[in-house]
Amino acid sequence: MFARIAEFSVRNRALIVLLWAIVAAIGLYAFTVLPIDAVPDLTPVQVQVNTVSPGLGPAEIEQLITFPIEAAMSGVPRVREVWSISKTGLSQVTVVFHDDVDIYFARQLILERLQQAREEVPEGVGEPELGPISTGLGQIYEFVVEGEGFAPRDLRAELQWNIKPQLMTVPGVVEVNSFGGFEKQYQVLVDPDRLRAFGITLSEVFEAVEDGSSNAGGAFIEHGSEQYLIRGVGLARSLEDLERIALAAEDGSPVQLHEVAELRVGDALRQGAVTMNGEGEVVAGMVMMLIGANSRTVVQAVKERLEEIKPTLPKGMRIRPYYDRTELVDATLHTVRRNLFEGGLLVIAVLFLLLGNLRSALIVALAIPLSMLVAATGMVKTGVTGNLMSLGAIDFGLIVDGAVVMAENVSRRLAHKPPEQPALPLIVGAVREVSRPVTFAVGIIIIVYLPILTLEGIEGRMFRPMALTVVYALAGSLLLALTLTPALCALLLRRGLRERTIIPFDRVESAYGRALEWALGRRLVVVGAALAAFLAAAATFTRLGSEFVPQLDEGAAAASVIKLPSISLAAAVDMHRIIERNVKRIPEVTDIVSRAGAAEIADDPMGPEEADVFIGLKPRKQWRKGLTKEELVAEIGEAIDAMPGANFSLSQPIQLRVNCLVSGVRSDLAVKVFGPDLEVLREQAERVGQVLAAVRGASEVQVEQVAGLPVLEIRARRNDLARYGVRVAQVHEIVETALGGKAAGEFIEGQRRWEVVVRLPEAFRDSPETIADLLVTAGDGAEIPLAQLCDIELVNGPAQIGREHNQRRVVVECNIRGRDMGGFVAEAQEAVAREVSLPAGYHLEWGGQFENLARARLRLMIVVPIALTLIFVLLYATFGRVRPALLIYCNVPFAVIGGVFALLLRGMPFSISAGVGFIALCGVAVLNGVVMVSYIDQLREGGRALLDAVREGARTRLRPVLMTALVASLGFIPMAASHGTGAEVQRPLATVVIGGLITSTVLTLLVLPTLYAWFEGRGDRGAQG
Hints:
Layout: H1 2-11, H2 13-33, E1 46-52, H3 58-73, E2 79-87, E3 90-97, H4 103-120, E4 129-130, E5 139-146, H5 152-167, E6 173-179, E7 184-190, H6 192-198, H7 202-211, E8 215-223, E9 226-233, H8 239-243, E10 246-250, E11 253-256, E12 261-267, E13 272-276, E14 281-289, H9 295-309, E15 318-324, H10 325-355, H11 358-365, H12 367-382, H13 388-392, H14 396-415, H15 423-448, H16 450-453, H17 457-482, H18 484-492, H19 503-521, H20 523-541, E16 556-562, H21 569-584, E17 589-597, E18 610-617, H22 629-641, E19 647-651, H23 653-663, E20 669-674, H24 678-693, E21 698-703, E22 707-716, H25 718-724, H26 728-740, E23 742-749, E24 752-759, H27 768-772, E25 775-777, E26 783-785, E27 790-798, E28 800-804, E29 807-816, H28 821-835, E30 843-848, H29 849-879, H30 882-889, H31 891-905, H32 912-941, H33 946-956, H34 958-977, H35 983-1019
Parallel strand pairs: 7-24
Antiparallel strand pairs: 1-3, 1-4, 2-3, 2-28, 5-14, 5-15, 6-14, 7-12, 8-9, 10-11, 13-14, 13-17, 16-18, 16-19, 17-18, 20-29, 20-30, 21-29, 22-27, 23-24, 25-26, 28-29
Helix pairs in contact: 1-15, 1-18, 2-12, 2-18, 3-4, 5-9, 10-11, 10-14, 10-34, 11-14, 11-18, 12-17, 14-15, 14-17, 14-34, 15-17, 15-29, 15-32, 17-29, 19-35, 20-31, 20-35, 21-22, 29-30, 30-32, 30-35, 31-32, 31-35, 32-33, 32-34, 32-35, 33-35, 34-35
């Protein structure tokens, strides 16, 4: 069938060229709409359920909100895991689905269950809501709003009511999160002494404020031929309107609100603040992108909209960006473009030098852009993003392999053609001769990528797009090799082709002939040396170490800083100012922005004791001479560590965010301790942290802070309440309204809305003693101090309560520096097992990137043997016999030899990136074996003796074997040598392929013919003569 396709293409070459022109046009359009980002989105399909409940502590949040929501999520189909965090005033439940679930379907499932959960959550403690439909790569643009003479309250108001609504209209923007500053609030500060003097209760004040500012509709009346709309207007439009709200009448005199309370414009209580460069507080906005949107397009649209917004800001107010995703996107794409361009030039140069003809080289080179266009079409149709992994892992050498074999065979036949012989039949015969082996060889390369498509979790999300892109490109190259390449050969080469002898290649052929004769005469030595090399490589592999994937250099740093749970937000702000000044002294740092506590939309639940610190860095060329990224990170760590009481973990912005969303932690490695009692969990986690810190390579070891939050408990004594005739609700009214403040309505200023909050002045609630003196009205009208009705005690409560698998858990996390992850975890697990003995009912789980590595290894151990079996089936289908299939199979382990030693020479551990390189390497090794063995078989079928067939077949196929190996390896050289942004992830893959192709090519040219002669000779002794 494949031969008929190639023959049809030669005879209908004009039609084939036209069809490929249409394919190219479709591909060009696909490139224009292809979503572009720096890296694949590693965030799992997940839905967050956030519930804000100001004033409730972690224990109450867990019992009243988190439990019911978790219970409602039980049984949701296709859910992989559920974890939650309960903190002061916030519950966040994260539901993680399997990767094949559509995000919109997942949100619909959770929304349905949320209706059930809302019935179980007590009224008034919070309204569960779905988080934004965004991911770890969703925070694409961040900026601060600043200006001299503007209070943080004014900056926040401008962001919230002017900038944010306009940015939300940008296509692809799903949310703009506000952080820092103060939210404006109209406050009714009730004086308890005045209330008693007028005989008014706090609840009566609250109800009066709630009812005293509203409008009403009265339908309409008909008056003659007209219709009048009826409105009742009572909405307060100024503080004076609020002050004149009537409360009661004493002796016929009205009592108005201003007589019992002070009304003022103030600041709402807040749980988050932003500081920048050690200069003070600012207000920050974080633009979040919709899942699946094009980050470059969205950021560009956001920038354009901000330019339109700037003239509408008050004079002197500015918008200053400090994080722009397109900088990373452009840097990684520059690396990819440069590597592809340089690799493509090297491939074309090699093709010209070895084919000896410019037309033949151009025919083969045309496979590069056309295969890329086919790949782009497939990427758009299947939703694959163009990024460092999907585009950067394409090797032009692999793409042109099929076209190389096809064009080389045609060129060789035409060069030896007698002048009087017609060219077209010769071209048809040449393409028919190699169409079947080319098809099976490229098909085998495609098959070796199938194991990558089975990866799950974060490793699947990272490498599946790459595998799909390569498969699309290879499928395009195979179709091109069977159609367009033969058609172009018929169009451009049939008028005659003069063989050009390239002197260096003649010398290579001569040297190869002598080496082959030597190998054929010493078969046992050659095969034994190859086996010894393979055993040495296997032994070396066990000492390489392992890691999940090399870290992408994002061009910026980030730190997660944790203070004591008892710290106030004001103290945290002061601490971060000092940290920022310390870090800003480092010459390579541009900006440093600290976000302490929670944002308006608490997608990342943090208290005042936690902060994410963004550290902008200058381009590498502006760094001090000889300074490495590791040394710079160490300097930043020392600057942060100079601040007493601050524990920290250093990372990068995207990495920090993705780690948090993937596993709920911000570091490379997490040890999760599960059990029922928080205090026992804390003790065991502290012990695990001590053991981890003693393991070589451990850095920034942190134990999740679950205790130490000061809590002022006002605990009602029910006997005393009954004696005085006081209800529990009256005590709660003191706690909720008088102390915490309760919204009684809204104050509307144009399009802006502000809460009207009723509470006591700070003088009546600033200490346990003043709170104890607050009076409660008894059943007989007597005023009873709160201390006579309640126990008021300052205790240490839980700072946060984490849960996973419906169990409480405490996380110990750390980063790993200076050694491979696999070796570190193995040593750490042994140490923890030896030194930590958990009580009954408690257990450990190891997570983070190690979990991803272990899962990927387990999956590959299953699917790689299946793929190798499929390869053998294809080889058997190609030759129809077991022996040649087994011979070619020997190329696979021999190819591994060079890849292992290349990693060793470059000091690289084994990673999933390197594993992908080994997979690609196997495909090329098999291709070369198919090309050689199939031709030797053809010669034998033509009546040639065994050794003659081996000698001539090996010498004839020397050029295509060298060409496929050279173009494949040279295509990866720029990637292996690159130090641009993103090159860290590509280097192991390229290193393995280049090193493996060196040994694979040598073994294909020497060991494979030797094995062929040896094994075939046993079945055909007479042919050896």
